[in-house]
Fold these 4 entries.
Entry 1:
Amino acid sequence: MNYELRRGKHKIFIGMAPGVGKTYRMLEEAHALKQEGIDVVIGLLETHGRKETADKATGLEIIPRQQIVRGGLTLTEMDTDAIIKRSPQLVLVDELAHTNVPGSPREKRYEDVEMILATGIDVYSTMNVQHLESLNDLVARITSVVVRERLPDRILEEADEVVVIDVTPETLQERLLEGKIYAPQKIQQALDNFFQRRNLIALRELALREVADSVEEEAASTPNGKFCNIHERVLVCVSTYPNSVQLLRRGARLAGYMNAPLYVVFVAHPERFLTKEESLHIDTCEKLCKEFEGTFIRVTDSNIAKAIAQVAEKYRITQIVIGESQRSRWQILVKGSLTQKLVRLLKNIDLHIIATEKTPLAKR
């Protein structure tokens, strides 16, 4: 019978910087699986002279590296063909973003891993967040270091499981000073450059956020995913009332406190044309939104509450900022307020109602 070959499962251990313990944790899990009877081998291990890591590899079978002669030197790389021939259930591969020696069958180590996965072998691998292609420019701005070893974001997105190996910046600096990451002569240079506390704090946040993003995207693709919002997202509802500028500034401050993206929505009635003054006011709101690096959304709908709720669902909003109703109590009693309608329509979204002075510029 002809069975379709199962693709191997890929588990990535990701951290904010060298020395957080990615390889050690990978080896720990490998030992536990070996005790359960799983056939585990080491395809490529980089200990960087760390004794604890080398000791942790004891007892696990290591596939010998492939030797490549280059310019009179003998260099080594992972022997992908030998791993596939050995056909274990699980192979461990360190430093996923590594660039292979010129002349190797494949340019990047992640390409070797993809080849192994295609044969049905499971892979555990390690990487640091700064090696993601999309974060390269941001990491360079944060650390003033241009990371040359990079891999496509899709590798992380396509992984079956991603585990963040997280330690505090202080713990990582302690490990560095104890000589557990680099040789003694490199410690001070590392502390003065890449391992500065502010760098580590920013990189740690990047690592945690990257995995949170992947969890949220995965949840969004499931039937109940729309209610799984890990990150805060702020939506400000502006109108032709002058208080919209005040609301927008308040919403931008809220987004800043929460480190959240800002969205601004204006709902236009299909049967009502804006005056020149009102159009200029909305244009001002849009320009202000862009100054705050937000996303401005224009919607045409006679049902304002429904339109706002739809935008909130589409952009997975968690916080909505609206102004206090400018209608009279009698109008609210007869027609209901926007706030009341939104409360009925929204689920798991916080509503911020900002009190402002009433101004008679517009009719809505």
Note: The mean pLDDT is 84.
Entry 2:
Amino acid sequence: MLDGGLSNRLQDQGCDVDDPLWTARVLLREPDELLRAHRAYARAGAQVLTTASYQASFEGFARHGVGRAAAARLMGDSVRLARAAGAPWVAASVGPYGAVLADGSEYRGRYGLSTAELVRFHRPRIEALAAAGPDVLALETVPDAVEAAAMLTAARGCGVPVWLSYTVAGGRTRAGQPLDEAFAVAAGNEQVVAVGVNCCAPDEVPAAVARAVAVTGRPAVAYPGSGETWDAARGRWHGRAVGPAASAGAWRAAGARLIGGCCRVGPEAVAELAEVLGPAASR
């Protein structure tokens, strides 16, 4: 069983994540608060803790005056802090290029970069995280099958297994590709231990999970958001929050073996999920 949204938990603790580094800003400025957030999810029953490296990059840290060697240490620290929180497994988060731009383009993809350019961007981040010894790399919130292929190439030979997780809408990637085409980039890749979706509406999960399993033959990973919608004009969320516990049984029946939450899913919702999944959460 996975954890929930790290940013919302940090905000609940009074941390400021309004920065292009996002949760990595807390990694840089308030690591004790990050450890506190991880521990909250571990206490709630999460067996996999995800690091605060989603928007971390050498370029982003450089804008804060952090040199390359120090940035690599900080990325490693994200793994070490999650490990110190006490859950059995640590997933090192590798967000898409659009996340590092911090302009919402991870929900569009298609940045105008070649596959080779994307590989060159992701490879140093992956190397820095892998060197710290996570149990898995979470290639997550990926909007585009082209970038997914580039991220898998960048992770090749790093010595750490990966899961690949797309953000989807309307039964397609955010870049508009059919899910069968998107999941196919991971088919036959022995480094990939799971394929699925995150940072999407909960009702997108069942069909996507079923396609992920059918196309790749791998277990699925599923950790959607709360189902609320962000209103950028008004600066607030609206809609009804639905925790993953409400649908976890159906996701598991469709083939999901790694289940948790993303945006706006906090420790309380993860604790409810732990009750629903029970002993199966440890398998």
Note: The chain has a mean pLDDT of 94.
Entry 3:
Amino acid sequence: MKALYTASTGMAAQERNVEVISNNIANMRTTGFKKQRADFQDLLYQVYRRSGSQTSEGGTQLPTGVEVGSGVKLGATPRIMSQGSVAPTQKELDVAIRGEGFFSITMPDGRTGYTRDGSFERDSQGQLVTIEGYLVQPGIIIPDTARSVSISADGQVEAFLNQDSSPTALGQLQLSRFVNKAGLEAVGDNLYVETAASGSPQTGAANADGFGNLLQGHLEMANVNAVTEIADLIAAQRAYEMNARVISGADEMLQATSQLR
């Protein structure tokens, strides 16, 4: 019976939906995390009578046809790139982006990664790095003698060196943005890499030309809403149960047919 296979695709689709929701909930406290959504598409249809086909020699046409679908499939899991809430941390190397843009990071394999996670540290050479030790572009070195490091809204990094009474410029953080930022590929460690779908990065200074501004001593939280995710989880569970009930119903119908024989 076709209903068995159709309902099975529904169960498989809702299983993937729950996996997406569970990943969102698991990353509720991940800095700069962007949630995903499961989008579904219907599968091919078996056409028994086509709409508009002729029904008599007089030229009458069938106003509506007879089509039976074969189920559902997972079409995409787009990432929702909306702004997350900004929380204070009181740590001078923590930086949050408010608006468009990503920090550019040099990955171990030489590729450039992009992140909204601005929880930066200094390595043994004073370079500004991520918590995994990946270099933040462009390379900014904060000397051992630096004190009171400040990062302005446009990314200017300054610090007082030794006993100087005026700050010294150490560099400027750059931001990158994409035509289709939802097309970026997530590779873990809060990093994304560009793809053909995302387009090439456009690099520029923060707080200018459509880029967002920076806020020192703060971090951007995940844009996951716990109440919404739980509601979506319940809906996915109910949809899974209904598809399972269809399989049970189809099985009972087949059993009744076999008993008639």
Note: The CA atoms of residues 157 and 171 lie 5 Å apart.
Entry 4:
Amino acid sequence: MTTTDPVLINVPEQIVTERLVVAAPRIGLGQAINAAICESLEQLKPWMPWAQVAPSVEESEAVMRNQHAKFVLRSDLVYQIYAKTPEGQPGRLLGGTGLHRLDWAVRRFEIGYWIRTSAQGQGYVAEAVTALTQMAFAELQARRVEIRMDDTNARSRAVAERCGFEFEGLLRRDTLDVSGVPRDTRVYSRIAPL
């Protein structure tokens, strides 16, 4: 991978695991993503700035189209998490994940994730994060993959630890929570061997 233009980097649009299909955004998914967000709004509100008010289906479709464009431009690599059908195809939309804060020169990426309320506690997030991490190292030649979360987000912390990420430190008052109050951020990482 010698190109310096991220648009020319081949990024898998789909990752298949034992139970999941992790797929790049597609135009026309506004209604499905809207249903998952609206079902989970109360659980997402404390952590996700974009989940403070229930979006309309039209707003959700606009988000999907913007995510699709950013994926093509390699400026943000959002994926949706689907239950895998018996035929190996994407089934019910379960949530989202992705590689964010991309630094293509360093090959540093940050993983984010969320899961709809009815799919919590079944290991789907850890399965998706493990697959995305493996893809980042194998396909994108990542040198560093991070997971960051609010210090009080115990569920997110458990995912990072379950997926083999190492706690690096606490960034004190480095960002604001959804209500504008300074918060501490936990930083976890996995790095490629030298």
Note: Residues 85 and 91 are 5 Å apart (CA to CA).
